[in-house]
Hints:
The complex is a heterodimer of chains A (321) and B (364). Chain A is mainly α. Chain A has one domain (17-134, 144-250). In chain A, 68% of the residues lie in helices and 1% in strands. In chain A, strands 1-2 form a two-stranded antiparallel sheet. Chain B is mainly α. Chain B has one domain: ABC transporter involved in vitamin B12 uptake, BtuC. Helices cover 70% and strands 4% of the residues of chain B. Chain B has helices spanning 2-8, 14-36, 41-51, 66-92, 100-118, 124-153, 157-179, 214-231, 233-243, 245-250, 255-281, 293-303, 308-332, 337-351; strands spanning 198-204, 207-212. A two-stranded antiparallel sheet of chain B has the order 1-2. The longest helix of chain B is centred in the middle third of the chain and has 30 residues, at 124-153. In chain B, 52% of the residues are buried. The chains are: A mainly alpha (321), B mainly alpha (364). At the A-B interface, helix 4, helix 9, helix 11 and helix 12 of A face helix 7, helix 12 and helix 14 of B.
Amino acid sequence: MTxxxxxxxxxxxSFALPLFIMAIGxxxxxxxxxTNLALEGFQGVGAFTGAFAAVFLAQSMTGALPYxxxxxxxxxxxxxxxxxxxxxxxxxxxxxxxxxVVMNILAMAMTTFLTKRINAAVFGHAGNxxxxxxSARFTVPVLSDIPVLGAxxxxxxxxxVIILVVAVVMxxxxxxxxxxxxxxxxxxxxxxxxxxxxxxxxxxxxxxxISGCLSGIAxxxxxxxxxxxxxxDIYLGYGYLSIAALIFGNWTILPAFGACLLFxxxxxxxxxxxxxxxxxxxxNDLVRILPYVLTLVLxxxxxxxxxxxxxxxxxxxxGKR
Amino acid sequence: MRLLRSxxxxxxxxxxxxSFWALLFSLAAGAVILFLMGKDPVxxxxxxxxxxGLLPKVKYAGRQNQLTDFLSFLDAMTPMVFASLSVAVAxxxxxxxxxxxxxxLAAGFCAHIVTAALGNVxxxxxxKLLVLVIGIAAGAAMGAFxxxxxxxxxxxxxxxxxxxxxxxxxxxxxxxxxxYVDPVSRQSxxxxxxxxxxxxxxxxxxxxxxxxxxxxxxxxxxxxxxTFLDRTTYGFEIRALGLSRxxxxxxxxxxxxxxxxxxALSGALGGLAGVAYFCxxxxxxxxxxxxxxGFDAIAVALLGGNHALGCILASFLITVISKGSVYMSSxxxxxxxxxxxxxxxxxxxxxxxxxxxxxxxxxx
Lengths: 321, 364
């Protein structure tokens, strides 16, 4: 029994944490007033650049360095790609929902196209994926012996630590620094920010780029855990799931973490259940709906009190009141 | 002369001009990409038209000619017209129907299951009619559910549709893989020819062609929808809601009723797209994926200016690229993904085209 519970916690966490870091990115963007449906595309492009770097470096290097460099590249890749969303939404005042959807379409088309090209041109073989394998895991010695809770410290992917550290830093920046205050004000009352002498559009651009960077970490984490490669399969809708998490968390970081944990545990719990009942693996698809159904039901109860940032989705115009 | 002037400068054709410029810029961008890859852009674009049956190919296989290609092109375009209309109707009243993929899946799946359960009881025309009715009903039910959640519980319709997409996909994947799989193709069992909306492989006039029976319906629906939106009270209420919720409520328009009506209508169109796709263009459902067409439709509707007839034009265009790219990639040996790349560039340009042509007043 404890065995099963451990498995559920270990798998649940490794799924929930990438979702969480992506949701933080979404919160940054949406709190600054830019609707962000593009998280899905950001994480894909991040995973693509990271995976390319990892495969490229692995030709000449061994050890853990390619692993960490790949995350760095994923952050850069996601951030650079996010610039395009910022450009469309802020400079060209495109409809932000549509821009988000288009970003996702573009990300998928571009990365699958480039993966094939790069495989042929750089690595000299045909293929539509970058093979990575799953990353090594570690177990914290003493802490992992605690009953039940010990599972949190067992078989941890290194990226889970990276995510937790980044998450703490990002929460601090959003809620405890002047920059964070301005960012949140941009989403609720951009004119007051402008009156205080801060460039609204610049803050928003930075926020969108941050969301791209954080999504890149998430994408790379999925590539190193669930899919073990980079291919078009990375676009499974996890970005959308994290958007649900952040709306569910009422655009605040800690409740969004709760939502992500819920998704993660529901997902791994379902898998464990299927294994336990000895059902064929096709039943996995049946339990995969659990997080989504759960979200819908909970949203019905919580949406009444939900309040999105007031200026969300509106391009900032100086003269407009 | 006056028409010409309004075409170039007037407000009436502002959206059309915006889409035109978007298209021009993107084709130029696509040409640059192709050129950098060392391919001839002109022949690449000609290949797109040839693959869609709009230009004659150099040589054809037996029993095939330009008309076969064109009919197959229409077959592929039909679900796209329905899907983009679905998005456009919802957008007119300010809702984002991102749930078209889920509605397509649900409608196609229900039609498959019901027709399979009935077997060969119904004569072919009735079976086809039944498929259409099921598609409309299933899609409308899903759309209305989204509208109801939005209206009654204030659940963001974007999130609802995303959740419903995933739920529909996993449920249907489970069902197909467990009970309804074709052991050879690993897809769902194929729908019977009697119920399929596309007459596939008809031998006539020395050729073998696919006839999309739903295509005339799609065109008819687009025209009806235009009349409905522009000329009826309900249509006016839908548009009023999109222009200003507050003003609509003040004018005494029932927000609940209009929300439900719009989303049900949008869902029904999504359902029609589903049966035209899974019970027409294709004869079976591929488990484990959502039809990407449902997402593309959002952008196609945008390219068509959210206008019913614009959607026909935009669907035509995007289908030329997606359908023709198969032929292009085999002729030029480029990756078929180049088509979706060009498509997404078109969509990017059309997304920000509003700022190319300048906006009028501050009412958006």
